[in-house]
Each structure stands twice: as structure tokens, then as C-alpha cells.
Predict the 3D structure of the following.
Amino acid sequence: MKNKNKLFFALLISVFFVSFLSSSNAPKKKSNPWKKWLDEVHLIITKTEKAVFDSLKTEEDRKRFQEQFWKARDPKPETPYNEYKMEFYRRLNYAETQLEGPNSDMGRIYILLGEPFEKRNFSGYEDVVDCELWIYHAEGRPGLPPFMYLLFYRPKNLGNYRQFHPGIHSALDIISPGYSLRRASKLKAYQIIKESLPQLAQATLSIIPGEGDSARGQSMTSSGSAIAQIHTLPEREVERNYLKNFATFEGIVDVIYSAKEIGGKGLISISENKGFKFLNYSIMPDDIDIRKIADNLHTANITINLRIEDLEGRTIHQQERNINLEFDDVKEKAMAEERKLAFKDFAPIVEGEYNVSIIFSNKTKEGYFVHKERINLNDDTVPVLVGFKIEELESDNFMPFSTEGYKVLADPRLIFNKNESLEGLIFSEYKPTIHLTSVVDTNNSLK
């Protein structure tokens, strides 16, 4: 028995000694001293900045890049401290110690937007799962709605908090599990929440207060775009001119966007109808790629996003339209590919100066193009609709390029030949004087 114990002890020593030798002789993997910093700033570093940093060869260049990275974000260069850097590390520490980490849903939003204007906690309620509502003011941050309801919830009261995405999630995800099992209706779940917690119910419809159909409990698609604007905020907030100081910057191209851009035309007009002013747009892609999904069925999934911003970059209005084109006939498909299809819509607008962008995207083939225009709407602005034909409407419903019972058929290319007439509608209290101005010679006009 003693010999067995000695043998066992000797084997333990041998195994330990061999493992020690193997570990001490094994080549050590070279650590990346910059990994920690890149992990810290991965939420705020832009794609171009990351590409430039990855291409740097020397420690001197990397240190110079890091210095310029923070300097480009310093809001007050004249002060001895970098307020942005200090605030970023405060947010990072808060996310690590008070939230569920910087890569959690709450942590990411906190690092990108900072402390909410107001927090509302809905934990411990019988009808709903644990929720927390963060209310933000945009405060001049480009591309964001003026006010935002960002909702976080614990699915079925299990695990960590997740961000609520209106449209993807619904009130059924917020209602207590017992309710969702017995009453599998989004509208019913919304009504249950609204009865006792109206603000929470509103947050399930849209991150923009007041949006959504409260009568039917339906959400707005603009929430998805607004959330995307939050997560891409660092791409718009920093001036990247400093990257020109690095030779590798010239070779960096964002292939994801440039390779998929297609051509197109866009037209924006202002109309007035029943005392309301409208922004009308018509957008025409150069081509529409169609995918065959059956012998005689071809489809294209189109999304058109309209964004109206003030000159400081604040979102005034945003809307998204999804169109599923289907052609079950070969001739229809051929006609759609040969002729130009124009997509039209409109939105209410008030006086002011705005930057308008219309993004056309074909999700079937991932092609897109953007039409941008600046408009100035004031007391002197006369609403004008111009096209190749005017039609009298039988309905008094609001629709694009219409005013007081008439509709204008507009071509975004604004191309007319000698055999066609140029027709338009002008909403004015006085008889207007009309001039046609040459796009080649702006000093030459025809009354």
C-alpha cells in the first residue's frame, strides 16, 4: 500500500514537472498592445479611421494617430483638457460598472448618447416585464429626432435588458408572460399596457413620441432608421480631415457603399392644398434589378426613405416606404426594365430652410442612390407643380403632386420635346408672372 502511494505521488510530480517544462519552453504569443485601446473605442471609431489605423506600420505612427484621434473630437481645443475624452471614459466606466458592460444594449446606447434626460423604471409591475425607458433630447446631434424614447426590457423577465425595436418587437414582448399566453394579440397587449402605463405603451409604437397608430397599436417604420442613425452617429460627428496626414488614407475606399451605388433622378416640389403645405417628391432609378423567384414570377424589394433636416442636422421629419414589385408576366417584366419607373410620395411641411434627402434602395440587389436638395419655404415661396400633364381628380383625398382637385404628372428628369407641352399648377393669390430660364444660360429667360 505504501509503495502504491509513493508511485502515485511520483507520477504527480512527474506530470507537474513535464507540464511546467512544456509551458516554459512553449513560444509565447506576441500580444498586441493596441488591442485594449481598440476594444475601448470600437463604438466611436469610424470605419475609415479603423482602416487607416490597421494599415499603419510603426509605433510612432500609431501613437500619432491616437493623439490626433482624440484631438479631432476635442470640443474646446483651447482648454488644457479634452472634454470629449474625459466624458467618453466616464461613460465607459459607468457602462462597465453600473450597466451590463459596454457591449450590452444599454451600454452601447449610454456610450453613444450619454446620460438620458430622464429615466423611467417599470420594474415590478404585474402586467409588464421589467422595463426601463430612457428619454433623450437630440441636443443638436446630427441626424437624430428632437426627442427619443429608447426602451429596454427583460424578455420574459429573464436575463439581461435588451433594446426594444418598434416594428420588430411589439407590445406582446412587453406584456407579462401570463398575458401573452392567453391573449396572443398585439392590439390587446397594447391596450392592456396603455390602460395603466400610457407612456410605456407609446414607447412600444415608436422611439419618436407621438408617432404610430394608437387606435390599432401599430408601430412606425421610421424607428428603425432612427435607431440606425444613433448607431452611426460617430460617423457624422467627427471631422476626419486629420486622416490626410497619414499617407495610407489615400488608398482607403469604403467599398460597401461605392460599389453598390446606381444612378437616378429626383424631383422635389412644394404644393398647397386645403391650407396645408406639402413637400412632394418623385424619384426614378436608372434601372431596377429584378430577381426571378419562380418560372413566371419576378420581384424587387424597394425601400424609399425621406429625411427632412434643419440646417443644424436635426431631423424634422422622416418616413419610410416599402414597395414589393411583382411581375408574373414576361412582357410586364420586360416593360419594367425598359421604361423608367418613377416612385412618388409626399409629406407635410412647415416654413423653414431644410436639407432634404431621398434614399432609394433596392434590397433585392442591394443597389441604392440618393437625391439631395436644399429648400427654403417662407412667406414669399409660391407653391409650384410642373409636369407634362394635368389631370382633374374625382377624389378630394390628399395625394402627391396635387392641389385643389388637380394632379400634375411629373417626370423627375424634366425632359420635354417640342411636341410636348409643359403644364403646371401655381397656388397664388395674385396672377403670377412666369419665366422659363435656361439651365445653360441663367441670364437668359423667356416670359
In short: Residues 41-231 form one domain. The chain is about 30% helix and 25% strand. The first strand starts at residue 118 and ends at 121.
